[in-house]
Specification:
The protein has 3 helices and 8 strands, in the order βββββαβαβαβ. It has 124 residues and is of the alpha/beta class. A 5-stranded mixed beta sheet has the order 5-4-8-6-7. Strands 1-2-3 form a 3-stranded antiparallel beta sheet, with helices on one face.
């Protein structure tokens, strides 16, 4: 799905998603990604079923610099396992899970508002 560019060059913006990847600020990424206000990292996660706490180390590293954490769960919204949610909360991270499309749109809206947002997105 193609999205409209809403932000300046000083921030990451999700331009499109689908077909197993993303276009972020002009760069194409195959597979899942973690997007911070300043960079996009490849993320080896392919489904919610395989998530473990270590998959969120890049998100935990952003805990002090991010206002909002989004989790794109893939094609549909699924709950984050309780043990992972509890460990993230203890690390100062509260993640909002939603389907990947909604997470992409929410990321762009929050970025357009100049909010510090990080998104961990499972490719669809």
């Amino acid at each position: 799905m193609k999205l409209t560019r809403q932000s300046g060059a000083d921030r990451q913006i999700i331009q499109s998603y689908g077909n197993g990847g993303f276009r972020v600020s002009g760069a194409v990424f195959k597979g899942s990604v973690i997007i911070t206000p300043t960079q996009t990292l490849t993320w080896h996660v392919a489904s919610m079923a395989q998530l473990v706490l270590d998959d969120f180390q890049a998100v935990i590293a952003q805990a002090g610099a991010t206002d909002v954490f989004l989790l794109g769960c893939g094609a549909g919204m699924l709950p984050l396992p309780r043990d992972i949610r509890a460990a993230l909360k203890e690390a100062g991270v509260s993640i909002d899970p939603m389907d990947t499309g909604a997470a992409c749109r929410t990321f762009n809206v929050l970025t357009g508002e100049r909010r510090a947002v990080t998104a961990a997105l499972i490719a669809v």
